[in-house]
Amino acid sequence: MGDTDSRQTVKYGGLVGRERELERIRSFVARAAADGDALLLSGEPGVGKTVLLDAAAEEASAAGARLLRAAGAEFGADVTFAGLNQLLLPLGEDVGQLGAAHRRALSAVLGIGDEAGGVRLTVFTAVLALLYRAAVDRPLLVVVDDLHWLDRSSAAVLGFVARRLTGSRIGLIAASRTAGESFLDHGGLPENEVLPLDEAEAAGLLGAYFPMLAPQVRRRVLAEAQGNPLALLELPAVISTSQRTARVALPSVLPLNRRLLALFASRVADLPAATRRVLLLAALDGTGDLGVLQAAARGGSGLPDLQPAERTRLVNVDQGTRRLRFRHPLVRSTVVEFSSEVERQWAHRALAEALTNQPERRAWHLADATPSPEEPVASQLERAAQRMLARGDAVGATGALLRAAELSPRGADRSRRLAEAAYVGVDVTGQLHTVPQLLMDARRADPDHGGSLGAAVATAYLLLNEEGDVDTARRLLIGAIEAKDGEYRADDRALIEALYTLFLVCFVGANRQELWEPFDAAVARLTPRPPAILSLCVVTLGDPARATAEQMSELGTIISRLPDVNDPALIVWIGRAAFFVDRMTACREAHWRVIHDGRRGGAVASAIGALINLCIDDVFTGRWDEAQQLVDEGRVLCALHGYRLLEWPFWYGEAVVAAWRGHVDRALELTDRMMHWATPRGVELVRSYAQYVRATAALGQGDAEEAYQQAAAISPPGVLAPRQPMALRAAMDLVDAALRTGRRSDAVAHAAAMAEAGIAALSPRLALVALGSAAMVAPDDATVGLFERALAVPGVERWPFDLARVRLAYGERLRQHRANSSARVQLTAALDAFERLDARPWKKRAGLELRALGAGVAAAEDCGADSLTPQERVIAMLAATGLTNKQIGRQLYLSHRTVGAHLYRVFPKLGISSRAALRDALRPQY
After folding, report:
1. How many CB atoms lie within 10 A of CB 732?
2. Is pLDDT of 765 > 70?
3. Region of 856 on the Ramachandran plot (φ > 0 left; ψ -120 to 50 alpha; else beta)
4. Which of 51, 71, 452, 828 is 20 to 30 A (C-alpha) from 101?
5. CA dihedral angle for residue 617, residue 623, residue 628, residue 634, rounded to 10 degrees
6. Which residues, 6 or more positions from 570, have their beta carbon under 8 angstroms from its beta carbon?
7. What is the Cα–Cα distance from 739 to 747, expressed in whole angstroms?
8. Which residues, in sequence order, are bridge partners of residue 191?
């Protein structure tokens, strides 16, 4: 036992969350081997005491110790010395070597002789002497489990022995329940309470053994188990495969298998029948509200019947809060397991009658009390599902819809409710894997009318997600919408969900007008008016350049109410409406609520949407490191739940930051992936996202021609293309690239288009972009005023990259007109911002401008080129990167002939005769 290195061979080191307990056991085993020791473990049933005893035994055995083991038994507690007999039987041969008195005493105890038993103290000392003799050649560890069931005589002997081990090489370790009454006197003995696993440890254990549990099922098991390892491992084994994947809703009380039932079975079975009835009401009610229990008990005496359960510590009744609390959720489950189906139906009916003022809980109890389909009950449960969705409980709503479908007598109603559950699963909860089967069940339930709006919506989303099939999804949705009978009412939930999904189809199709026409026609038919968020998304998300002041005011009002919004899908749609018009800052707190809910197993699909909105907001507001963290989390969720359609916004977010930071290879790799996916599917929005990344990457690298081509492909010069939201993102890039490629008329036309559209009124960032672009193309006498107006826009500091770009353009223009002092101010501010962002290509561009001013940005790097003027040095460095004279001229606003003249003077100063030698001659600068 003393060899601590031997633990390397012990296999229990992988116990989850038990590092401290294992370390204490190792320390105990080592102390016991050297000088004797005792340790008592206590804890609730199933918490892992037996496994820790096994760990102690393995540790001691690996160190060469001898083991003696025994365990108390519930039905052996009245048999005198039953435990001691079990423990000492392996030492029968050693008994003969004891003194006569000790031998006679133990022979009677062990049943190995005919001698009469000795007095009590003689038995005690005889056991101690026997253990001492057994530990002569090597250390000895005595392991006793279920001490609470050990007989009185054996417990007394072990208590005597445990206090007299000092100086021996004997260890005694025993385990008992926290609440179990043991005959062993614990006073003065070292004890260690084995606590349940904490939340993270419990989740780790559950995930290791049951990785495929649906998030809401995992969350339910964790709540029921409360860190109890046995419950964590056994509860998932009891529920069906359909329940594990959330295909079928879990019951209100999880069933128990034989191992779990045994934990509290004896104490529940011994209770009076009246007590068990009240406990059954409490177990099925789930709130512990004594008022509800009193009302539901009716014919019984009610609360006084709880006293036997309180005495056995199965429940605790707090008269102050008027609440009953089960000592452990497994007690609740045991109570339910001990009841019959008839008793459970009685209890659910009684609770439903007591809950007339709580329609959701009443609906569930009625459903559980109803063994066969009944439309009134199904209708109540469907209405409860709608209320759950409104307050953000999408997982609960899905379960309610599935149960309502089971209780639906008519096939059409069952089909509609299954389709609605499928839509919630695909759009909110992240249960994509269950949707195809639900849709198949919906069609089977109503083969003649299986094309409901709910089914069309869920199927369309699957088509978009799995195949990116914009056209088929559009046809399916339009067909289902146009087949709808009667008025297009704005309070028709199924119709509005179909229109939101059709809008998503149109949005990803971007400026494909044939996609938008049927959508616009359907929205126009809504009475009395379309939902506000849908109407706003059509403009601020689908065509933001044409948003009006009235619409922006309405959006501001809706955003201001976000603290009171609980529906995760609605929060994400509000964020989308705010996205291109730069209103996400006020939406961030609500989005984090959705993400935290998704992390806890709630609305996963909505959480992915919230991650996208926050990630892109982080990109454009300069939180680039956080953006990457959200990208990583979002990709994991998309992969885990199969959301292929939602992956590409994360590619886009990462690609933009990569382009701005100069990781061009990574940016182009991601845009290639986006183009490869989007082009054959006609997903124009993804193409425009990729084109934007390529444009801004090319600008950073000094390739203005490539930047112009990519930006112009999004929206042509002089036009902010309709139904193309990326036209706003790429507007200043197009102006910048047009100027640098000699297309001044294009740049002027595009700046004019921004002014005419009035985008400066939409947000401070867009005002900065519009005024900055106008300043770039303005006549010399107007440029300073426009740049100053742009920089004076309140709040532009929230967008540090765009602000630094405008400062850079301002500094370049000032330098060209020899306003060197003012230019230095703007260029230095731009350089500092690019440095903070680690935007290396743009930092280099600002640095080159400062060097052209002779600002000494890199004076320490000028070794070997001191004879060059600032202008010559900048031109030489650009030429060393491989740029042509024309490309250099576009960057520095010089003619290619002037660039050539400068290089003609540079070559002899550096002692070279060709451009190929420039890099080596200027190597200290690199």
Report:
1. 26
2. yes
3. left
4. 71
5. -30
6. 533
7. 6
8. 40
Residue 104 has pLDDT above 60, yes or no: yes
pLDDT at 64 over 90: yes
Q: Which helix (H) or strand (E) holds 214?
A: none
Peptide bond into 255 cis (omega under 30): no
Q: d(Cα 407, Cα 383) in Å, to the nearest integer?
A: 14
pLDDT digits (tens, 9 = 90+) for 783-798: 999 999 999 999 999 9
What DSSP letter does each residue of 89-127 carry, written as one string? GGGHHHHTTS-HHHHHHHHHHHT-SSPPP--HHHHHHHH
Strands 315-318 and 323-326: antiparallel
What burial class does residue 640 get, using C-beta atoms within 10 Å of its C-beta: 0-12 exposed, 13-18 middle, 19+ buried? exposed
How far is it, in rounded angstroms, from Cα 701 to Cα 709? 15
Please enumerate in sequence order all residues whose Cβ is within 8 A of that of 302, keeping only pairs 6 or more positions apart, or say none.
278, 293, 294
Q: What's the maximum distance between 2 C-alpha atoms anywhere in the chain?
A: 122
Pairing of strands 170-177, 323-326: unpaired
113 Cα distance to chain centroid: 67
The answer to whether 859 and 837 are in contact (CB under 8 A) is no
**DSSP readout, 137-169?**
SS-EEEEEE-GGGS-HHHHHHHHHHHTT-TTSS
Reduced 3-state DSSP string for 431-484: CHHHHHHHHHHHHHHCHHHCCCHHHHHHHHHHHHHHHCCHHHHHHHHHHHHHCC
Residue from 708, 720, 710 nearest 690 by CA:
710
Q: Is the pLDDT of residue 481 over 80?
A: yes
CA-to-CA distance for 278 and 300, rounded, in angstroms?
Answer: 8
What are the CB-based long-range contacts (under 8 Å, 24+) for 589-592? Answer: 589/562, 589/563, 590/562, 590/563, 590/565
Q: Which residues contact 515 (CB under 8 A, 6 or more apart)?
A: 470, 474, 505, 506, 509
Alpha carbon separation from 473 to 383, 468, 503 (Å, rounded): 29, 9, 11
Would you say residue 7 has pLDDT above 70? Answer: no
Please list the alpha-helical segments (H only) found in 525-567: 532-536, 549-560
**Quick check: 608 and 594 in contact, CB under 8 A?**
no
Q: Residue 251 has what DSSP assignment?
A: P
Provide Rg for the chain, Cα atoms.
Answer: 38
Query: Which residue stretches of 817-869 are H helix?
Result: 820-837, 840-852
Alpha carbon of 391 to those of 304, 395, 423, 586: distances in Å?
A: 37, 11, 17, 21
**568 and 597 in contact (C-beta within 8 Å)?**
yes
Pairing of strands 191-193, 37-43: parallel
Q: What is the pLDDT of residues 184-217, one digit of tens each?
A: 777 778 888 999 999 989 998 898 888 888 888 8
* pLDDT at residue 859 is higher than 70: no
What does residue 75 show for φ and ψ, rounded to 5 degrees?
Answer: -100, 10
